[in-house]
Amino acid sequence: MEYEVELKLLTNEDAGEVIETKLLPQLNASVTKEALILTNHYFDTPDRRLRQHDIGLRIRGNNQKFEQTLKTAGKSIGGLHQRPEYNVYLDEAKNQNVKLPDLRLFPLSAWPKTIDVDDLQGKIETLFTTHFARKVYLLEFPNGDIVELVWDLGEVTSGDKSVPICEIELELKKGNTSALFDLAKRLVGLLPTSIGTDSKAARGYNLLDGLPVKKYLQYQQKQPENIQADATVVASLLTTLLQDFQMLSSEIRRQYSEGVANNIKQVLIALVENLAKFNQHFPCPPLNSIHIQLKTLVNGWSLVIQQNNKDAVCELLNQAQTTQLQLDIVQCLVERPWFSED
Question: Where is the CYTH domain (predicted)?
Fold first, then answer.
């Protein structure tokens, strides 16, 4: 088993050139490059049993080499994901099926006790596929930090429906999570970006099943009774609010709605209030600046939604300062002990 610690940034088709010509020359790091063409088939049962357990199952093909992967539920804070991952290479010479996973190749300990692996094996089927070109940059820094930066361009497909893939993933291979955030903030300064919270698998399920986005969220009910009781409770609350902001931002980019715009304003106000309380009891020096910037964002948001203009809303969401602010909040939460504790 490996643990994947990853940040995802959604961007545009200029990312490949910007990485090569602007980002890499800035870095004091040795760089190893690789180009891949990846085809991925995702599997589940008709009743979405794996999805219900927050499990992803796929077979990835690259130049006639195949690997089956199982990703199980992990931790996520505002776009930074820490998730157990199990990988098994498949070999057609050993009569291994490269079109359907053999679930018994994964360790039994990888599965929740509520899943009967033998029963599951007989019911899984291909649900959707992803096809994309990937450029891989393995970055090794003098302090020992190692980060894999990948640039993916392609699409998720289910039947006659598809959605584009246009994203950068930063995965920590060795060292401190601050290396991920340093790279992410450099990219935010070079490209239009937003934080991605949905995996490719999640987008495939959304495409396949047309899963609805939450239309109304009762933010005021999420405040803990005693903010001093448990730092993890408050961190969880802030994480939920941040993820709500990211999810609603993604929804409003697709289709402007006054209701969603007002929900985003509620989330931002709740973030301002709870961030101040959090910083009072569990001080994190950067939160002072973040709190001021958040209040400025609330004021800016109030102005743009009065215009009832999708373009103005999207322009504010795509500003580097907005993504940078989200990254700063996530970093403050992640670099506290509760994210790494089991």
Answer: 2-211
Output the pTM of the full model: 0.76
Tens-level pLDDT at each residue, the chain (342 residues): 666 788 888 889 999 999 999 999 999 999 999 999 999 999 999 999 999 898 999 999 998 899 999 998 777 666 677 788 999 999 887 888 889 999 999 999 999 989 999 999 999 999 999 999 999 999 999 999 999 999 999 999 988 889 899 999 999 999 998 899 999 999 988 988 888 777 888 888 888 877 544 433 443 434 444 444 455 566 667 767 777 787 788 778 777 888 888 888 888 888 888 778 777 777 777 778 888 888 888 888 888 888 877 788 877 877 767 788 888 877 877 766 544 444
Residues 205 and 128: their CA atoms lie apart, in Å, by 8
Q: At how many degrees (to 10) do helices 310-318 and 286-307 cross?
A: 170
Domains of the chain: 2-208 (2.40.320.10), 214-340 (no CATH)
Number of other residues whose CB lies within 10 A of the CB of residue 169: 20
Spatial distance between the Cα atoms of 339 and 276, rounded to a whole number of angstroms: 20
Q: Residue for token digits 């939920």?
A: 240
Q: For residues 138 and 244, give the distance between their C-alpha atoms in angstroms, rounded to a whole number.
A: 32
Distances (CA, A) of 285 to 114, 236, 265, 280, 291: 43, 19, 25, 10, 11
The Cα–Cα gap between 149 and 7 comes to 10
